[in-house]
Design brief:
This protein is α/β, with parallel strands linked by helices. 26% of the residues lie in helices and 25% in strands. Pfam families: Methyltransf_23.
């Protein structure tokens, strides 16, 4: 039985690439490339990888990295807009940057800030930087995030995008064992249509979606 797409649930998936560690399949409907479920890491092994991350608000280089999402998004926000940083990781930093700019923030991370109560509130914007490539069920989870946005609210995502099968073979992004979903511009365009959102691509690894 062919594995269904974790973004759109289509059964129309096909082999895309195989390396020594994993298989990768591509969805014919939404263009997501993904690792089959049986080749994902167990939760403890996944967290062990994240525990090695050394991100911090005191790291100027990390702030510059996050500014690729922060700058185009903050320019679109009303003063005092309230946000959620989803998948904040062990060293929340983007939330600090938005708070410094006058935007109250909540954070959520299944391993490091697992208060699901914050997922029941409504926000003017939600961010997920270097997160969607880790999601096991991105279709369901991104739909749930979109539902927590106020009308006109923004969903800001940051992830490297798939370009071509040839480039995928030598792509550093697939070497991380916690990366299991790989989006293309076509995938995000499909998602925007599914969620009835407007989509913008301000940078090669940034996508902004606005709730109508």
């Amino acid at each position: 039985m062919m594995p269904s797409c974790p973004l759109c649930a289509s059964p129309e998936t096909a082999p895309y690439h195989r390396d020594a560690r994993r298989d990768y399949r591509a969805c014919r409907d939404c263009a997501l490339v993904f690792v089959p479920a049986h080749q994902r890491l167990a939760p403890d092994d996944e967290k062990a990888v994240y525990d090695r991350h050394q991100n911090s608000p005191d790291d100027a280089g990390y702030r510059r990295f996050l500014s690729r999402l922060f700058d185009p998004l903050v320019a679109r926000l009303a003063p005092g807009a309230r946000g959620l940083d989803f998948g904040a990781g062990p060293g929340p930093t983007l939330s600090v940057m938005f708070e410094e700019a006058g935007h109250p923030m909540a954070i959520y991370d299944p391993f490091y800030a697992p208060d699901t109560g914050v997922l029941e509130r409504t926000y003017d914007f939600i961010t997920a930087t270097e997160v969607v490539e880790h999601l096991f069920a991105p279709g369901r989870e991104l739909e749930q995030l979109a539902e927590r946005l106020a009308p006109g609210g923004w969903l800001g995502l940051m992830t490297k995008r798939v370009s071509t099968p040839e480039a995928f073979v030598d792509w550093h992004y697939i070497l991380d064992p916690t990366h299991v979903c790989f989006f293309s511009e076509a995938s995000f365009t499909w998602l925007a249509g599914r969620l009835d959102m407007r989509v913008h691509f301000p940078a090669n690894d940034v996508v902004l979606q606005q709730r109508r």
